[in-house]
Design goal:
Order of helices and strands: HEEEHEEH
Largest sheet: 5 strands, antiparallel
Shape: globular
Strand order of the largest sheet: 1-2-3-5-4
Strand content: 15-25%
Distance between the termini: 30 Å
Mean pLDDT: 96
Bound molecules: guanosine-5'-monophosphate, zinc ion
Number of helices: 3
Number of strands: 5
Length: 137
């Protein structure tokens, strides 16, 4: 993918602060540093988002994400971690190359807010919603 920012990072055309690399997976610091140590984990091959990433490679990416999260807790003194995958624009995806955010969290001193607001979905409709999903599995 010629114009993809993350493909350019993989090819070394854009610099990054690399924290992990193997044949298939790369992890580097997010330029925005939502919290100290905020890291992105990506497959080196271009897939638009998580929905298109082959399962074996997805498992490798998530394995690296776990490894990074463990290192963030051990080295940076993080008290917890959010692992976040934005998929498509509606979910906040701005770079269309699959990536996993690994965001260390610090008690009382970081500025990331993730909030699940209440919705209007009636609990009585939950069996039908579950059935809709099951039909496509
Ligand atoms: P998204 O919103 O697509 O889930 O996240 C994309 C992330 O990529 C953002 O957090 C943004 O800060 C990060 N990002 C965008 N461009 C660059 C870049 O050139 N270098 C690095 N290291 N991160 C980038
Ligand atoms: Zn790409």
């Amino acid at each position: 993918m010629e114009d993809c920012i993350f493909c350019k990072i993989v090819r070394g055309e854009i610099p990054c602060y690399k924290v992990y690399e193997d044949d298939e997976v790369l992890a580097f610091l997010d330029i925005s540093q939502t919290t100290k140590g905020h890291t992105l984990v990506i497959p080196k091959e271009h897939f638009q988002n998580m929905l298109y990433c082959p399962k074996d490679l997805l498992a490798k990416v998530m394995g690296v994400a776990q490894h990074i999260a463990q290192a963030q807790v051990a080295s940076l003194g993080a008290n917890g971690v959010n692992v976040l995958i934005n998929t498509n624009e509606v979910a906040g995806q701005t770079v269309m190359h699959f990536h996993v955010h690994v965001i260390p969290r610090y008690s009382g001193e970081d500025c990331l807010r993730l909030e699940f607001l209440s919705n209007k979905i009636d609990h009585l409709s939950l069996p039908a919603i579950a059935d809709e999903i099951i039909k496509k599995l």
